[in-house]
Amino acid sequence: MRAAVGFGVVNEVYWPSSGDPQVRDLTFLVGTPDGWVDVKRDCIYILTPCEDGPLIGVEHRLADDPTFRLRLEIMPSIENDSLLIDYALEGGGTLYALLAPHLADCGQNNTAWVQDGMLYATRDDAALALSCSGGFGAMSAGFVGVSDGWQDFHQHGGMTWQYARAEGGNVALTGELKESRGTLAMAFARHAGGAAIHARGSLQRPYPQQRAEFLKAWQTWTGRLRLPAGGDEERARARLSAQVIRVHEGSDFSGAIVASLSVPFGQAHSDLGGYHLVWPRDMVEAATGLLAAGQPHDTLRSLNYLLACQSPDGHWPQNLYPNGEPYWSGDQLDETAFVLLLMGKLRELGLDTALRPEALTWAARRAAGYLARNGPVSQEDRWEENSGVTAYTLGLMIAALVAAGPWLDAEEADYALALADDWNARLDGWCYVTGDDAPLAGQYGVDGYYIRIAPQAGPQPGRQEVPLANTAGLKVQAGALVSLDFGYLVRVGLRRADDRRILDTLKVVDGELRYDSPAGPLYYRYQHDGYGNTADGGPYLGQGIGRAWPLLAGERGHLALLAGESPQPYIDAMLHSSGPGGLFPEQVWDAPPTRRFQPGKPAGSAMPLVWAHAEYLKLLWAREHGQPYEALRAVQERYLAGKPVPQIRFWRTDAPAFELPAGLALRVEDTRPFTLHCGFGAADAWDSVQERGAQAGVFGLWRVEFTAQELSNQSALNFTRRFEDGWEGRDHRVVLRG
User: Is the pLDDT at 685 greater than 90, yes or no?
Assistant: First the structure.
């Protein structure tokens, strides 16, 4: 059982899994002799989180009535599938509960009814029962916007309708609370009778006793935390961040951590989309954050879950429900790479022995093979908007291939390292721009910079055209787009923080993407971003204005720290951009104040963003230890200390080599068998024409290889390929630099 709070009321309840929201909201109306109060719309509220555990207190007040107070405390039952809402109304009046079920994650085709002093709803195989310790007086089941309790109060100033049933629609339940103090129990089961048992059972024990038991369990877990060093506010937020991550792990599928118990801009749409899904990338970030906070058992549970969810071909779905059912169908290679990096981290800490070696080997071999077959171009970037090659995804894949080595056999390990070395050597050619490809270089006085993304792995990446999502068709040159994504090259150990390319890119990013908010420096994802509120603060519905992300302040703070600067401005910016109760939002408002939004404060998208809480934990850890938590020794030793010289250039259809430096072998690869028809010399006069059949290699790849020696006296290699279904229909040319 998990619940979220918005506008001071319960606005989503998740059951049986953290991926299954069942309620739109549970709010309150107050009837008084002078009128009525809609708590969600008319009151000012204050959140009072509990330090010992995820127990949320809310106090509602009226600006023009100092005697009015509605106090709520929200806690899941530790014994029943129910959510407990302890309430106390002060200042007079009668309290009414107004519940809008959205069972099975849908507001349509719900049925609500009143029976035996309780309120019920059902849809498909989900049922809800709402009970009250002091009992209900008047009760009603109606249709939203027509016969619900809010419409009753709006039209009549009080509760006059008492409908027994609302069948098959968007429904709402209303119940008059007989007592001004008491406890509500909202319970769930597969049928109404079971929900009623959970509701009654959770009210038969005193609320204070259940509260004490709930907090004791959380105190035990929190007591095991090893929080990074910091001031009182920083450590309190670190404790909260660890608790936030832990709350997002469901109890039905152990280890599964969803991205957020929220639906960004969910008030404006009714589709199933939301962040109550497992994104392997976000989940690894969260699990790594818990590991940095001293909770290895939680991290191991998450890895165990991920290994069980791996697809047969070796990759992980873009996102999935906790029960393993994929939601979106995109392929993001960084997500597969992240799991290998988590495995590598646990191995370096000596924690991998908690899982069967055979399970780790099987997972690593399949994941490494998937990256080898499908890289370096990813179908989607980490923002899920473009295909192409990015420093972020490619850097993670390179590190992941190194991390996989201990679980691979000798031939596979040699191949993985050779491929990683080649990609590392070519990364700048695909992702770093200079000269005419770098239109922002002159403005910032730099030689070049890493771009956000190049649609193809090819020469002159800055001249490629990038279509921007959420913008009604806007296209820009890749050389004009930057982001903080390149920072992971430093964090995983491929580049030094004082590398001139890194420092120059930071200058451009600071100039293009920094927002100096009242909270401190925050950052946008990239220029022309269209994901965020509309200009007037309206909800994002497919097009908007990208806002600044506290998460990215954490990423910028890492780079400042590793370059020898203080990360404090970025830590403070994260702290002060949080919402009520200390939760980090996905985005903050970056325009003049409105009735709903203040500059530098949450802008109405997802909150909390679990990834941001993990980033905060890791930034505090990095400040204490002077290094990024993600970095693996094996990667640092290879690319920062060893600097290996590549031996093979890997030619793929989506990552061709147009020139080959002297001393390198050339390997032409594909996932299908082929015959290479080739010759040397000028493009229109092939010499020594020959055919070579591809040989089966590791990870399901077929290859034809030319040694460095046989290429040493040639000027160029021309070739085309014949597959089982015929010729590919084009020629390729590689200039050989002797």
Answer: no
